[in-house]
From TrEMBL:
Residue ranges of the TM segments: none
SUPFAM superfamilies recorded: Cytochrome b5-like heme/steroid binding domain
Family annotation (Pfam families): Cyt-b5
Protein name: Cytochrome b5 domain-containing protein
Residues in Cytochrome b5 heme-binding domain copies: 6-77
Domain of life: Bacteria
Species whose genome carries this gene: Loigolactobacillus zhaoyuanensis
Length: 78
């Protein structure tokens, strides 16, 4: 993991659109979902990358189990 800290505005730049990287924040950590096929184009089941999805992931069928497969790229702070 890097020592990078993302603000809400910085994270929003990583929305997966136009070839940009796709990052999501969960519980204070920022994960790279760029190469995750279901996140192609920065969108997944109505959600968009570049946001804090902490409240959303707990409602997903897979919950947080998918996080262990992702790369942490930094920390998130509002």
């Amino acid at each position: 993991m890097t020592d990078k800290t993302f603000s809400k505005a910085e994270l929003a730049q990583y929305d997966g659109s136009d070839g940009k990287k796709a990052y999501v924040a969960i519980d204070g950590l920022v994960y790279d979902v760029t190469d995750v096929k279901p996140w192609a184009g920065g969108k997944h089941h109505g959600q968009t990358a570049g946001q804090d999805l902490s409240a959303v992931i707990v409602k997903a069928p897979h919950k947080k189990s998918v996080l262990e497969k992702l790369t942490v790229v930094g920390n998130y702070t509002e």
